[in-house]
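I have a small job for you when you get a moment. Would you make up a two-line entry for one protein for me to read? No commentary is needed, just the two lines. Write everything out right here, beneath this request.
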Amino acid sequence: MKVIDKLKQKVTVSFEFFPPKNEEQEKQLYSVLVQLKEFAPDFVSVTYGALGATREKTFRWVSEIKQNYKLEPVAHLTCVAATKENILSQLKELESMGVENILALRGDPPEGQTDFNPPPDGFKYAKELVSFIKERKPHFCLGVAGFPEGHPKAQDLRKDTEYLKEKINAGGEYVITQLFFDDRRYFSFVDRCKKAGINVPILAGIMPIVSLKQIKKMTEICGATIPPELQIKLDKNRNDKTAIEEIGVEYAISQCQTLLKSGVPGLHFFVMNQAGPISKILKQLDI
């Protein structure tokens, strides 16, 4: 079932996984899928590594999730190291699996590089990828990414919103936001989008904090900020991993409750291939 159709029926709950790198991580992901399937997610997405390095693993797990776990997969697809011919081949492969949903992204440049340089006959912007997919395979349901605090490379919030509108005009049907920790940032983002004429569902991307090292890296990548009161709590408990996770879970529950009361169309959890924190959060939410 297409994500956009699910969004017309209910407030969605979804998870994002990354392809395992080794056998131990594979076993962990199998266990995580079993545990989180009990919450009946409306869809689950699978990320796509830098330089397309995990494409084969991404597609394998997309197939696994659909065939063996009977969950609706959303395959990430990026412009990184991909020509139009590459993309078309990948679309055909996803089509053969019965996949209906794609999250179309530009992707990040390789580590150590600041500029994104597409290959010849490739795409420089996600809007071009979205347009190409809609032209060649219009039956796919396409999601795109949004940045509540603005993309790190954007000139300003106005320009960032204008570019998001271009992705929607090209065929994006819903938005999944990057992670954020201040719900006011999400509400301001939604308001900016509405004023710009963006009227598609905007799902809130939630990442529970379970590691200071991990969240420092993630916020640096996507430009998200941590509210001062939360940062103080984390700093006070920086040497207590259990306490950090408890703080992260408690904060995420509060975030989600506020978002749900305000009519968010969906909650998209960046699971980081861990079931425990997400399970604790969902058990406390009235969804």
About this structure: The chain has eleven helices and eight strands. The first strand starts at residue 12 and ends at 17. The chain has a mean pLDDT of 93. The beta strands are 12-17, 43-46, 73-78, 101-105, 141-146, 174-179, 202-206, 266-270.
